[in-house]
Write a structure and sequence with these properties.
Blueprint: H1 5-23, H2 27-43, H3 47-58, H4 65-80, H5 84-97, H6 100-106, H7 109-120, H8 135-149, H9 155-176
Length: about 180
């Protein structure tokens, strides 16, 4: 079976980062290599290997940048897989362990957008009116994420009010019946 050129590049990068993680005496360099190994595993659709590396890195304490980046990447992975309970644990760690200054300095805009977009999917205008028992939870979490990243309030606040108004209208209608 022939590998695509992107898969070949990802495999070569993975081999390089594995070597760097193994031979580097400096913790920060090893952590960066581990983080990039995890990203390579994600690109190669090996999410369980990526998750293992990200979890281990996220819990390291000798440097804050790479554990923080690992936590954010793991958070995205878990939410995309629909593992919301696990994602909530990672969110709580990020929220309690890291300051906004670290978020602003360390988290690329692309990761911020990926994190917020996975929570915002159920808030697409027509989706707001479809039954979803997790919608309120997702809206509340998204508001907290906006505060954490200091990106809002904005459209999410408006959608939150719309959903609350819709729920009040439904409750009022059922009481009248």
């Amino acid at each position: 079976m022939q590998l695509s050129s992107m898969e070949q590049i990802d495999r070569a990068a993975l081999a390089f980062y594995e070597q760097q993680a193994r031979i580097s005496p400096e913790a920060t360099v090893r952590q960066e290599a581990d983080y990039k190994r995890a990203l390579c595993h994600r690109h190669l659709k090996q999410d369980s290997l990526a998750e293992e590396i990200l979890r281990q890195l996220m819990n390291e304490t000798n440097d804050q940048r790479w554990p923080f980046m690992a936590a954010c990447e793991l958070w995205v992975l878990l939410v995309k897989e629909g593992r919301m309970a696990d994602a909530e644990v990672v969110y709580e760690l990020v929220d309690s362990r890291f300051r906004f200054e670290q978020l602003a300095a360390s988290v690329p805009n692309g990761i911020r957008q990926r994190i917020t977009s996975v929570y915002a999917v159920s808030l697409v205008p027509l989706e707001v009116f479809r039954p979803n028992t997790n919608r309120v939870r997702d809206i509340l979490r998204l508001q907290q994420i906006e505060r954490l990243f200091q990106t809002g309030p904005g459209e999410i606040e408006q959608l939150s009010q719309l959903v609350q108004a819709s729920q009040l209208a439904q409750a009022s209608q059922s009481v009248q019946e």
